[in-house]
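ok trying again, last paste got cut off:
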Amino acid sequence: MVSDMFRKRSFFMSISLLLFSSLFFVQGNTYASFGETTYQEDYSIVPGVTLTKENYTSNGVDRAFNQMMVDLDASDISVQVGHAGPTHQQMTVTDLAEYHTNPAASEYVVGSINASFFYAGSPVNLVVQNNEIVNLGRYSANANNPIYYSYAFGITEDGQPLIDSYDKNVQLRFNGDSATAHDFNTGRSEGETTLFTRGYGWSVPSIDSESTEIVVKDASPTPETLIFGETVTGVVSEVNKSDEGGDSSIPEGGFVIAASGEEQGEQFADIDVGDEISYELQIDDQWMDSETMITTGPLLVEGGQVSVSMNERSSFASRREPRSAVGITADDELFMVTVDGRQSGYSDGISLTDLAEHMISLGAESAINLDGGGSTTMAATLRGHQLPSVVNAPSDGRERSMPNAIQIVSNSLPKDVSESFIELERFANLKNWNSTFARAVGDHSLSGSNSEGDDGQSAKLTYDFSSDRQEGTSAAYLEPKQPLLMEGTPKKIGMWVHGDGRENWLRLQITDRDMNTHYVDVTGENEMDWSGWNYVTAEIPSGISSPYSLSRIYIAQTDKSKKSTGTVYVNNVEAIYDAEHHDTPENEPSHNPLRGKFTDVGDDHWSVEETSYLVDQQVIKGFPGGEFKPNGQVTREQVSAMLVRQLNIDKSDREEVPFDDVSEDRYSYDSIAAATEEGLFTGRQEDQFAPEEPLTRAEAAAVLKRAYELSGESGVSFSDVDESHWAYSYIDILENNQIADGFPDGTFAPEQSVTRAEFAAFLYNASTRD
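nice, full thing came through this time. structure:
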């Protein structure tokens, strides 16, 4: 990627802001605070190389960091800048790693980060490899852009990383005299002399001032290969003087010296056609003969202090964006950092000043910014693999191609995975998790107690698919903000799931090395039909590239007639490497997520399972203060509301309630309207519903039979219910379906009021029966 400002603005050097340059360097020691840590995981790559993934959140701002620390004292570790070949070629960071990995020579790229800014396929700025200039480069037009001042990252002649300023010039020699060209293949400014080769283009740029342009042909060695310290000599073929410069063509195999302004032109007053003239490209001694050098910017840290070498108030510096940077500690350790951005809810990006402070917090003595935005990419070789894979989240959702990358090269590969399984998530908290919904509503939360350790907690996912009973898939997603990265090549993913018996479809979403998405079935459609804890596994499809990352756990329903409400729980997600591994019943999560919903329904209450289950189905509710009042009488209007919620009955567009004692402003009006129109309820009298009257056991039998379309004969008789009783058949059917039993004395007590706990049990039995 090239930053937007490179697409839209001139690259040519301007000196108009030099007088103000000191205003644009920021120094200080106050490190940015990124807030609460929501995720952290360390990965040992090879001895001397460690990857750390960290997420932070503060005041609604999220940031995701990837940091690779490199101990250059490790005997088989080196740092290189990998190029894609000719400057117009590009590759992704991972393809560059593969291109520069050479198993025959035991050279493995185990870590990498994007490097140069680029435009139209080529690096924007100076790139040097083995002292040869790969790309001459251009510069930002002013200090509002990142590469106005001359800073670079490179590897010195003795293999050490270096971040520092540089000063290059072009020394000109002719007729026993000499002069200095201020730069080569850049823009022109009055009062300066610039050297142009065919690497710039076909002709010199124009300038609105007096100009002397000396055209040189037959240069040797060819100026198409530029090497610091090498002298190139040619013969003058033209000397063009004009009031306005820019008419001279740059000859193939030659160059042009363009002197702008009267004083600059006077240096070359004695040069004639046929004279020999030579130039030598020079650079500071510290950069001479360097293995690699790439100019980038701005500088972030110098001498352990924040020193941003551009206007930090400019939009480029101050916006929160995806960023890449490289730093060197006082002990000459190297580290590379990416900060993801442009992804709301995951990572918003970072300003350059905050990035500089973060680099200092990691120990930077010096640090410099690299290309960012959509190019921000870090790759690492995880255990069990031979090539790096992307470990951050590029803002485009894919890797961009680029001309070069900073690479960590090792003479050995990471170790293999030896464990039979690796735990990916234990749900000690939900800081790294979100929930999203398709054709549904819902929420996620943490369930359970941590009093006995992390085993006491799980992720709770509540969903309501009934709000959109249309064609199409409804789904509830549990999503890690930082996808769960899996080392090696696991065969399965396993986890404990507490089902609600709703016959949904349990699935996973994983991302492969090539950043492609794959959907993996844990169950078939409508086969998530169990209630309680169950250990389940999903086989990872063969033929997809590893390593993988887990990006979603979700339930779905494609059948509109089965779209309902419910709650499921997830615990102990694992990557499984041994195909025979299956968690044992002894490891079933110790907590029951359906317990402890009410202050007056303790774990030892006879109805705790039933009442808590129906609360999770959003069917029954408690009272202020957390009470359920299990022994209180349940009223007819309360039961109508429960049944409408449990059966997902649509309450809209119902006929007017035909009862005088149910006004339109009554909270239960819509539920009574729906329940009576559906034939579940009748009134106590023709014009009276009796909403506040307790429901009798006989009435409970009638409404449950109608609601669940029950049938059958039990053959059981109750002494207080003979065949002439209006509810005889309803009570017999409830007994037959094991929804409600009689009392030990052989009675059913049909006129007795039903308690809230009793009706919760009746409703639970009816809705969960086979």
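cool. The longest helix spans residues 697-708. The CA atoms of residues 211 and 260 lie 5 Å apart.
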